Amino acid sequence: MRGQLSLSAGHRSGKQREEATIIVLYIAGAIVMTIGSLYFAWQSRDFRKFLAGAFFVSSGILFYLYLADVSVPLLGTGFVETPEISGARSIVHFFLFLLCSYLGFRKPVTLTHSIK
To answer: Does some domain include residue 115?
Structure first.
């Protein structure tokens, strides 16, 4: 009996370790994707237009998940994204859509007369 208890406790710590590793990988992936997206958005106007569309779709889906009261599990972990988190993320993504739309679709300013 005692060996079974220690085996199940070892299994739990192994599962917790695996879950922690997955969370670290999610965070590292998010950081790399954020830095890459910011770099390309800074360099390319067309990429800002693409991001505007992606943020628009993302905000709509997240808002739908909020209204439908759907919880979304994070793959490979025990975490669940609640509808309230989806609602807050939809607001953030909508503001990012507005920002990327403005920066992607506005005309670049050109100076017509110089100072001598």
So the answer is: no
